[in-house]
Specification:
The protein is of the alpha/beta class. It has helices at about 5-10, 35-45, 55-65, 80-90, 120-135, 170-195, 220-230, 235-240, 240-250, 280-295, 305-310; strands spanning about 25-30, 50-55, 70-75, 95-100, 140-145, 200-205, 255-260, 270. The chain has an eight-stranded mixed beta sheet, sandwiched between helices. Helix 4 packs parallel to helix 5 (about 120-135), helix 5 (about 120-135) crosses helix 10 and helix 6 crosses helix 10 (about 280-295). It starts with 6 loop residues before the first helix and ends with a helix.
């Protein structure tokens, strides 16, 4: 159930304005902490049945015990495509909303189980595969959490070196993965529209939200700076979850991008925001989609034969 809003009311929007979500099922990846857990609690309080898709079911169950509403926990490791496939193959019921929330940030150089650079593999490829595999069950929308980091340093998709084997930096790899989230949303919406589907693809970013995501930064100095930022400048996880909740429940155009309305989109109430030129390039989005299909072995399941050759 989408709630229609206008620009004048969006500035004051909060979780108290969530519509009744009774009868709706929502999957939230990475739902055991941070904005994922906060969003899960808000959606469950509004009546949704929320599936916490988490790498560690024990931690997931502990998190679910703090949620006020209907939940269940299922294992999902986005850094392992076999786990992604197992999660999707076990899904039988209709699914209203998929929230691609899980992510890793500015890690030391690491690889997923399938050999991909960890940030690109987890933040983009894992969610790319999960979305395509669950699309036959989806009835409403896919919301993918990106970041203002998609603008860092003129971020681009390094098609000649996606795993950044020749020049890896944690910041550059993270920016690439967040740019990929937005390009994925753009191309997913194009394909949904061409297939005649009513499912919508949207993206959101939390602004500068204090979560445990920043604690995994590769460099000690970066972790120290982020701790200071979290303490003195960041908004809390409840405010950070608002753009996601807004994207999940409001009547927005496909490919919309939601973020905070404050200075630099660091904090504030959720509203529609812009994205970089690189994140708006349809040709790059199509190229990334084709490469992602090859890497994950998954494809858009609703396309007609001629559309799969685009």
């Amino acid at each position: 159930m989408a709630e229609t809003t206008d620009s004048k009311s969006s500035a004051a929007w909060s979780a108290r304005r969530l519509p009744d979500l009774t009868g709706r099922t929502v999957v939230v990846t990475g739902a055991n902490s941070g904005i994922g857990l906060t969003a899960t609690d808000a959606l469950a309080r509004a009546g949704a049945h929320v599936v916490l898709a988490v790498r560690d079911p024990e931690r997931g169950r502990a998190a679910a015990a703090t949620v006020h509403g209907s939940t269940e926990v299922r294992r999902l490791d986005l850094a392992d495509l076999s786990s992604v496939r197992a999660f999707a193959e076990a899904w039988r019921e209709p699914l209203h909303v998929l929230v691609n929330n899980a992510g890793v940030m500015m890690l030391p150089r690491q690889r997923t189980k399938d050999g991909f650079e960890m940030q690109f593999g987890t933040n983009h490829l894992g969610h790319f595969a999960l979305t395509n595999l669950l699309l036959p069950h989806l009835t409403d929308r896919v919301v993918t959490v990106s970041s203002g980091a998609h603008r860092w340093g003129g971020a681009r998709i390094a098609f000649d070196d996606l795993d950044m084997t020749s020049h890896y930096t944690p910041q550059r790899a993270y920016a690439q993965s967040k740019l990929a989230n937005l390009l994925f949303t753009l191309e997913l919406q194009r394909r949904l529209t061409e297939a005649g589907s009513t499912v919508r693809a949207l993206a959101a970013h939390p602004g500068y939200a204090a979560t445990n995501l920043q604690s995994h930064a590769a460099h000690p100095a970066a972790r120290a700076l982020m701790r200071l930022g979290n303490r003195f400048f960041a908004q809390d996880d409840k405010a950070g979850a608002l753009p996601t909740l807004y994207a999940v429940t409001q009547d927005l155009p496909g490919a919309s991008y939601v973020g905070p309305d404050g200075l630099g989109e660091l904090r504030g109430a959720p509203t529609l925001v812009g994205r970089s030129r690189a994140a708006s390039d349809p040709l790059t989005a199509r190229r990334l989609w084709r490469v992602s299909e090859e890497l994950t072995g998954t494809s858009f399941p609703l396309a007609r034969d001629e559309q799969t050759r685009v």
